Amino acid sequence: MKAFEATQYFFDQAAERLNLADSIREVLLMPKREVQVQVTIERDNGELATFVGFRVQHDNSRGPMKGGLRFHPEVNLDEVRSLASLMTWKTAVVDLPYGGAKGGIGVDPSTLSIRELERLTRAFVDQIHDIVGPDTDIPAPDMGTDFRVMGWFRNQWEKYHGFNPSVITGKPVEEYGAKGREEATGRGVGTLTVKLTKRMGLKPQETRVAIQGFGNVGSHASKFLAEAQFPIVAVSDMTGTYFNADGLDIHDMLRHSLTQPRGALSGYDRCEVLPVDALMTLDEIDVLIPAALGGVITTANADKISASVIIEAANGPILPLADKQLTDRGVIILPDILANAGGVTVSYFEWVQNRQHYRWTLDRVRQELDKTMNSAFEAVWELAQQQQVSLRTAAFMIAISRVRRAAELSGSIG
Length: 414
Ligand code: NAD
Hints:
Elements: H1 3-17, H2 22-29, E1 33-42, E2 48-59, E3 65-72, H3 77-93, E4 99-106, H4 114-128, E5 137-141, H5 147-161, H6 181-199, E6 209-212, H7 216-227, E7 232-237, E8 240-243, H8 250-258, E9 272-274, E10 287-290, E11 309-311, H9 320-328, E12 332-334, H10 336-339, H11 342-356, H12 362-387, H13 391-409
Parallel strand pairs: 3-4, 3-5, 6-7, 6-10, 10-11, 11-12
Antiparallel strand pairs: 1-2, 2-4, 7-8, 8-9
Helix pairs in contact: 1-3, 1-13, 3-13, 4-5, 6-7, 6-11, 6-12, 11-12, 12-13
């Protein structure tokens, strides 16, 4: 199943409960605009290299569209379309005044030098600068992009349109970025993991956690949960699965990753090292947190997952049939559109600060983030109990109702 079909499947389950007419479903599902561009750069050795870039603008009923930029070899139009749609539902479920978009380039950034990466970012901006902007579509970091890429993006966009740092979020803190943006997605994942497990009567010290991915989201989530006394028994990244049945020393691993190219855990030997794909199906895990790629939990491995709670830190990690298998087994899944909304929430705070030329303290960012995540969680939890549906269906029901209402109020649907 393709990524967009999977998003549509989850959307349809909620649309069914909301008795949404087919014509309304179509309006809400289909992206407003899809752009595909050729991005050509000169490599350091003088040769030309060409890549394909995308920006999909899904919906703007609730405000300017918002969504990350992904640099990854598997980026394609179907995936970007699915991620853009997820952004619409994500911004709606946490009630930010935004719509949804997503973009990316099909490239493995680890094969580029830092100067090539900068040239690639600037060449992409040259292609799409006229369709993004502070009041239309505001990009942010995602897999394979970071604060430096955001800084180059802003600088190139301003060459065309003049000073306006609110065109993009996730910028360097010294250059109009927000304190707490980098940790925000992982912190949101951590906050809601603590909340959900507490509600299920699990004690932190006895709740064994496994986290796939040790990049931005996975590393910050690991740190937050380790500090909240959860034993993190396994984490994986592209280099392997790092395992200790008594709990890993996450701070030691974070220190190690800083010494490695691109923050990898490669060479970390103060625990057992297993193959990359071992993490998903480890025995005696209570909470599984996929925080790397989409589509990693399928019918091929769903039955072998021992966790009773899955927190979707990555976008779209569970495919629909696997989701059904797990839900039927009683596994509680906190869906991506809620679980990883911390990043876009602090991106919103960054945009607000930029527009007001004012800076918030880290404490204020964290307080406002926790407040937003907690109230979204409570609303989703309550609806799920009331309607006897999964947390995913409840989250989609809230999001779809908000987007539909905004589209009705603006007169774009009857
Ligand atoms: P990142 O590039 O910083 O890190 C990705 C991590 O996944 C790396 O540690 C990498 O080694 C690991 N990885 C890649 N393939 C793997 C595999 N097969 N097995 C195990 N590990 C593997 O990316 P990120 O920003 O942390 O994003 C991770 C996920 O979270 C993505 O799905 C992204 O869309 C989602 N997300 C990110 C943000 C954000 O603010 N960064 C916000 C919302 C959602």
